[in-house]
Amino acid sequence: MPAWSQILCWMFVFGLTHMAPASVALRPRLVALLGQGPYLGLYSLISLATFVPAVRIYLNNIHTGPLLWQLGDLPAVHIAALALAGASFTFVVAAPAQPSPASIGARGGSVGGAYGLTRITRHPMFLSMGLWGLAHVLVNGFASDVAFFGGLFAVGLIGCMHQDARKRITEKGRLDAFFAETSLLPFGAILSGRGRLVLSELPWPALAVGVAVATILYNLHDWMFA
Length: 226
Known about the structure:
Elements: H1 3-19, H2 27-34, H3 36-59, H4 75-94, H5 126-139, H6 143-170, H7 176-181, H8 188-192, H9 204-224
Helix pairs in contact: 1-3, 1-6, 2-3, 4-5, 4-9, 5-6
């Protein structure tokens, strides 16, 4: 089996094990059986166990398999991918400073409308991981690259949609105002007039750290993946 198909299989398993245990049908039963803490611990462990093999195979087979497209040589695409990768990585680093009520491990309690990063997207961490994958798909067209980074994008997007659908059922009422003022896609609620961007609410120190880390990794990228 070629490396790209192995990566694709592992990414499918990663996505399946990431969403099925968090479904409306399974999650309540698993939490009742194990408890909230052990459930989250086991959930994280399974996600790690299915993701690590995909990473290992990909790192041993970077830029292999059929070349599906070659867009990285186009200046506009290269700049767009670079901006998307930098912004999404910055959000991943900054997101823990303002945890989203729509995230898997979010605690109970009253929730109002959007705030800070969630005014941009209600999934500033999980969706940003997917968009980071999309940025790499744009400039890496070999089958192994597309299987890995495209898988990240698919799991990120579908996972967020799955999480939203579950939360709308299990936390109806508590998160109604939050969903009304937020969107899955970045800036969707703002562009539709359902929300607004408040710059003073953003976690600027965390964003600065994210920019710094993203800049360092960008400058080390060729050395790390040569």
